[in-house]
Amino acid sequence: MSNFEYFSIELDRHNSFYLSGENLKGSIKIKLTEKEKINSIKVYLNGGAYVKWNGTLKGGGGGYATEKYVDSIVTLLSKLDNSDLYLQDKEYNFDFEFLLPHDLPSSFESSIGQIRYFLTAVIEREWMYDKKVKLNLSVKSVLDLNKNPVLRQGYGVCEQKEICCGPCKSDSIVADFSTKKCGFVLGEQVEFKVKIQNRSNRKINHTKVALRQNIVYHADHNKTWITDDIQSVFFQSSIQPLENMAWENGDIQIPLLAQTLTGRIIEITYSLVLSFKASASLSKNIAIPIVVGLIPFN
To answer: Which residues constitute the signal peptide according to the record (predicted)?
Structure first.
């Protein structure tokens, strides 16, 4: 039967949510019903990434890898040499504090990979199993757009798309796609412009702009990836042959999602993708890379 009435970790904020670079403060709370002989009381802060997949995914082959981001320890109580240490049958409260590294990536969960952070309090005991309690943390990376001035600049792409070939070849479609900047934060509206010159003899349907997320998982000299259109907006009208279209004030909102991440085994990138489809032809795509961060431009 255990002598511990309770053994828990309590933090200075109830939601266990922290920004990278912040101080994490808390306390270990213990109450015993009988005296307990121990060696030490320690708190561990750990965090890292883990990826694993089998050979049925894109890229072929399987993969497994881990990456460590933080591994810290605080000793709260420890016995001296040639002496015994006891916890009495009463309540204890041991305060602790960790400084989170400023470059921690955000917590992340998927079926293939995870980025997780957690605290573990350990009471080391003689001739008995150690007593442990664990608490998961949520960490948000402080990706400051101001540190990359290039992201303030607009970005434009003008491409000419050929329609079919040989006897069914038609004149091309010219698409001009642009944004005012390339750095954005969660919840922000991304403004864009689209101009399309349909020089072909085909009608253009299904013109849309999508916020595309691409997650790449790296392991064992192999990789796999998942691409997903998070948000999409559509141009309401078709574009007739030899007709021009101007989509002047388009916008799409960035929802609450993972920030851009350039980790060694998990990489998350975003792009704004213009796609359109002419009759009896494949879809055409034009992409603008963007960065999703936490701190907006001043």
So the answer is: none
